[in-house]
Structure formats: structure tokens, C-alpha cells
């Protein structure tokens, strides 16, 4: 009886190890919680535990529908962002609010444009220096 219980225990431990190893091999890269922050035009911030510095360089275009106006489409705003890692490698990205790429990759990070404020008013766009962009940064652990 003792020998039977020992054999069952050994087989169950072995089966658990095999299933666990199989799950690890077939697992998708784990995504780490995203970090959200805002920057004004011309400002920069260290994010991702100091791994990246993100600078909101400029608003390149803003054709979003003005506040209080009924438009056929929402329009789009495009901004330029410069991302630098600890080693000094950089990438310049163009991120959009409503069309094309809202995000881009840099090394193992995804940088997304969440929102851009203020929205245009009928007849005028905000001064370029008044814009504030909200970003999210997310890292994949693969």
C-alpha cells in the first residue's frame, strides 16, 4: 500500500511539472501595467522606472472638429514625440488622436497618445505652447 501511494505521488508531481512547463512554453509575452502621464509641449519626463525619457516636441497639425460644431468627421491632431533610452538611443515618433498610428514601439515599450487638450474652438486653434498630451507607456516582458 505504501509503495502504491508513493508511486501515485511521484506520478502526480511529474505530471504537474510537465503541464507547468508546457504552459510556460506556450505563454504569450506578459504585458506589464501601463503608466499614464501628461506633458505640455516642449516638456519631457523620465518614465518606466527611468528607462525612457519622453519629450513632447510639437503639435504638427490639428484638424479636429472644433468644440460646439457638428462635423462630418472628428478630424485628427498629429504630434511629434522624441523617446530616448538610458543608452542615449532615440526615436522620433508621430502619434495621432483619431487616425493613423496612435502609438508606436521603441525597444520593448509601446508609447500611445491617449488624448490631446485643449480642443480647437471655432475660428482658432490653441496656441502651440498651451497643448497638453496624455500618454501611456507599456512594456512587454518577453
Report on the architecture of this protein.
- The protein is α+β, with helices and mostly antiparallel strands and 142 residues long.
- It has one domain: Tick-borne Encephalitis virus Glycoprotein, domain 1.
- Helices cover 18% and strands 44% of the residues.
- It has 1 helix and 9 strands.
- It has one helix at residues 2-26; strands spanning 30-31, 35-40, 44-47, 52-62, 77-85, 90-96, 103-106, 109-117, 132-141.
- The strands form 2 sheets. Strands 1, 2, 7, 8 and 9 form a 5-stranded antiparallel sheet that branches. A 4-stranded antiparallel sheet has the order 3-4-5-6, with no helix packed on it.
- The longest helix has 25 residues, at 2-26.
- The radius of gyration is 24 Å and the shape is elongated.
- Residues 15-23 have low confidence and may be disordered.
Cα end-to-end separation: 46 Å
User: How big is the Rg?
Assistant: 24 Å
Q: What string, H for helix and E for strand, traces the elements in order? A: HEEEEEEEEE
For the report, how would you describe the main beta sheet? 5 strands, antiparallel
Number of helices: 1
Structural class: alpha+beta
CATH topology: Tick-borne Encephalitis virus Glycoprotein, domain 1
CATH-defined architecture: Sandwich
Amino acid at each position: 500500500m505504501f509503495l502504491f501511494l508513493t508511486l501515485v505521488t511521484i506520478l502526480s508531481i511529474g505530471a504537474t511539472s510537465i503541464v507547468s512547463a508546457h504552459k510556460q512554453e506556450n505563454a504569450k509575452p506578459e504585458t506589464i501595467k501601463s503608466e499614464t502621464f501628461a506633458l505640455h509641449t516642449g516638456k519631457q519626463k523620465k518614465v518606466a522606472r527611468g528607462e525612457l525619457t519622453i519629450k513632447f516636441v510639437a503639435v504638427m497639425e490639428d484638424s479636429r472638429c472644433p468644440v460646439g460644431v457638428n462635423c462630418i468627421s472628428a478630424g485628427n491632431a498629429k504630434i511629434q514625440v522624441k523617446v530616448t533610452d538610458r543608452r542615449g538611443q532615440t526615436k522620433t515618433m508621430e502619434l495621432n488622436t483619431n487616425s493613423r498610428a496612435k502609438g508606436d514601439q521603441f525597444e520593448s515599450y509601446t508609447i500611445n497618445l491617449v488624448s490631446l487638450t485643449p480642443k480647437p474652438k471655432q475660428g482658432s486653434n490653441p496656441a502651440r505652447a498651451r497643448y497638453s498630451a496624455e500618454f501611456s507607456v507599456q512594456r512587454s516582458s518577453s
